[in-house]
Amino acid sequence: MTAPAQPTAHDTFAALSVCFTADLAAIVGEEPPVGITATSFIDLVERAMHTFGAANRDHLQRAGEELDYAVGHLTEALTLTGSDQRDRLARARTHLRYAIETTR
């Protein structure tokens, strides 16, 4: 019996994209992109972050900070491998989820 294959960075970025692209696109007032790449997804997160950067309400500023953390983890994940990469992607997912929940 063989061990299950570990997900690749491409698979994990794709999963994050599927989970969060529609919400992030709504935040920036765009249609969700189709066939988004890892770097395009990071760009979308950054655009959403800048949307909240100028907000005067505390919870929206907090959402912007969470997106900023997510961008950092996603960017680092592009150059890492193995468990380090999975760790950064998991952290990014947590920050993305918190940012979107904060805006609701």
Distance between the termini: 45 Å
Poorly predicted runs of 5 or more residues: none
Pattern of helices and strands:
HHHH
Q: Tell me the Rg in angstroms.
A: 14 Å
What is the residue-mean pLDDT, rounded to a whole number? 84
Give the topology, please.
Blueprint: H1 9-28, H2 38-53, H3 58-77, H4 82-103
Helix pairs in contact: 1-2, 1-4, 2-3, 3-4
Description:
This protein has 104 residues and is mainly α. Helix content is 75%, strand content 0%. The protein is built from 4 helices and no strands. Helix 2 (38-53) runs antiparallel to helix 3 (58-77) and helix 3 packs antiparallel against helix 4. The model has no long low-confidence stretch (mean pLDDT 84).
List the keywords.
0% strand, 104 residues, mainly alpha, 4 helices
Short summary of the structure?
This protein is 75% helix and 0% strand. By secondary structure, it is an all-alpha fold.
